[in-house]
Amino acid sequence: MHISLLDLKGQYRSIKPEIDETLRKVIERQDFILGEECRLFEEEITRYCGSKYAVGVASGTDALILALRALNIGPGDEVITTSFTFFATAEAVSLVGAKPVFVDIEPKTYNIDTGSIEKAITPRTKAIIPVHLYGQCADMDPIIAIARKRKLRIIEDTAQAIGATYKGRKAGSMGDIGTLSFFPSKNLGAFGDAGMIITNDKEIADKIRMLRVHGSTRRYIHSEIGMNSRLDNLQAAVLRVKLKYLDSWLESRRRHAKYYCEKLKDLPLILPYVPDHNVHTYHQYVLRIKGDLDTFMKFLADSEIEARTYYPVPLHLQECYRHLGYRDGSLKEAERAAGETLAIAVYPELTIEELDYVINRINAFFER
Ligand SMILES: Cc1ncc(COP(=O)(O)O)c(C=O)c1O
User: Fold this and answer.
1) Which helix (H) or strand (E) holds 139?
2) Whole-structure pTM over 0.85, yes or no?
3) pLDDT band at 290 (very low <50, low <70, confident <90, very high)
4) Minimum-distance ligand 1 atom for the alpha carbon of 92
5) How close is the Cα of 92 to the center of ligand 1, in Å?
6) All domains of the chain in start order, with CATH
């Protein structure tokens, strides 16, 4: 049996008539740029995510860049974030000319260690970007308290966690801005790149609406230097269909995760930890092994089970950030997690036979 980390073909097959029909309609209308689908999808996302405004953009990375620009963050400013995330989180900070300041993670959830944030604040700090990694929220209350006390803004990188909740509040809706990615492999994935920002602040929403179309509110009149970063109308049409199924897909992911957790609990592995106040969406189901990760990965590969480490090099140790002066040992928990974790398939369409196959092979590894 071959188990891919993700197989999107089954998902497409399950909704093919609806997807094909909606795409056909957009094509027939030749309505590609900021059309009706985009507007309706933005409205639907505000309802789904519990925010007042939503602005569709071209990717999750652009959402971060535009969020930072909307908060006037740029050269001379510092932004605190986690070192254990996808590169785009910090890249966006660098691209607006600001400096990312990395802090360590809390080893059980892999999310930003809120106890390390205050020590990283300097007079230049303007914002904190918590990342809701693997589909569960960072511990937002302490982050919000620090941000209020120190007058910092919060951008929630919600690329991996649409639909997750923290103490009943939706991911992305708790800070000043939430950024979403609809990269195809995300729990709500487009047929290409797509992203969105959500916010309760009308001024921020208006500014991002202006920045995403070359800094313009009236045709050919430009009040600021903006970008071309619109949510493609064809992508919005696909995403509108998929959004209707998202909650049932997230439920399947949680069901699979529960099954793995039950069946793997007696092995010398560290399984995902979910605090009571969180509802996880399992964008990734991540195992942690004390010992030889490479041997474990090789065993899984030989069993035709795809597995991957997200992320093998924490951002503070990336070559492009060498000038920031971090070194091995600077952020120990992020470094340990990078060397001890791997994600296995948890996508909704997995069958019980496939889950059992993965579980049996993992058991076999520890029986050797
Ligand atoms: C945590 C995180 N932030 C940002 C991004 C960037 O999103 P995109 O690929 O849509 O630009 C991603 C995913 O790719 C991500 O996982």
Assistant:
1) none
2) yes
3) confident
4) 4
5) 10
6) 9-102+110-240 (3.40.640.10), 245-367 (3.90.1150.10)
